[in-house]
Amino acid sequence: MILHEYFAPQPTATAALPDPAPLLRALTQGVLEALAGVREVDQLARWFSEDAYRTLVSRANLSARARSARGVAPTRPTFAILSLRVTEPADGIIEAVVVVAGPGRTRAVAIRLEGLDRRWRATSLAVL
Predict the structure, then answer these.
(1) From edge to edge, which strands make up the β-sheet containing 80-90?
(2) Distance separating alpha carbons of residues 52 and 126, to the nearest angstrom
(3) Mean pLDDT, the chain, as a whole number?
């Protein structure tokens, strides 16, 4: 085994990981709050891979600039989770869509979780 592979994140089987549903709900709420400007993106960093986190930071910065240009203050989003659909394309990988209804629109949040180092990490996220 090459030394850098030994220290790299190690894949974890689904059976060795907790139920992903509570994490999916919490991540959805956290991401929507971060995009609304009422939560620091840094609070979510531990649950994301580096690439997914960078994408989230970029999206939150764009949202903040758009709010600033319109002169709108950040407000806590109110929404209800309508449904949670989960598939498992491979062992240790979960792909989910969380459908949330807010006062003005219904959105879908697509999240890919991978089991790494005995915990779930979001490696991809899209708010549609």
Answers:
(1) 80-90, 93-101, 106-116, 119-127
(2) 9
(3) 94
